[in-house]
Amino acid sequence: QVQVVESGGGLVQPGGSLRLSCVASGDIFKVYARGWYRQAPGKERELVALFYSAPAPKYADSVKGRFTISKDNDINTVFLQMTSLKPDDTAVYYCNFQYSTRWSTDALDAWGQGTLVTVSS
């Protein structure tokens, strides 16, 4: 019932920047967490940046100081501003929302289809 859609991926040179966007729609009453994950070929999906209920976001050590996550609580969006991109950042980036409906506080997860970021000269 909930749809998550990412956008903004593409090809960028090392040192460049990209901004990823994600919007969740559907029966979302409360968002407990929202964030970005990525998966490179042959690797496990890993956390990139995440908002919990606390204001301060969590970042993977590999992206600290380079990536910034932001959100708009009013419209269930989350963004990822990526700067100083490296070839190792090449991956499919996935957006995730952990949420509840009006009828239960049980947490549910919704994932986007992914957007490809390729960092190459």
Summarize this structure briefly.
By secondary structure, the chain is mostly beta strands.
How would you describe the overall organization of this protein?
With 121 residues, the protein is mainly beta. Helices cover 0% and strands 54% of the residues. The protein has strands at 3-7, 10-12, 18-25, 30-39, 46-51, 58-59, 67-72, 77-82, 91-100, 108-111, 115-119. It is elongated and about 50 Å long. The protein starts with a strand and ends with a strand.
Rg for CA atoms: 14 Å
Briefly note the structural class of the backbone: mainly beta
Mean pLDDT: 95
End-to-end gap: 40 Å
Order of helices and strands: EEEEEEEEEEE
Low-confidence stretches: none
User: Quick one: how many beta strands?
Assistant: 11
Major beta-sheet overview: 7 strands, mixed
Strand content: over 45%
Overall geometry comes to elongated
Note the total helix count. 0
Could you estimate the helical fraction of the residues in percent?
under 10%
Show the helix and strand layout.
Layout: E1 3-7, E2 10-12, E3 18-25, E4 30-39, E5 46-51, E6 58-59, E7 67-72, E8 77-82, E9 91-100, E10 108-111, E11 115-119
Parallel strand pairs: 2-11
Antiparallel strand pairs: 1-3, 3-8, 4-5, 4-9, 5-6, 7-8, 9-10, 9-11
Q: Which structural traits does this protein have?
A:
single chain, 121 residues, mainly beta, 7-stranded mixed sheet, 4-stranded antiparallel sheet
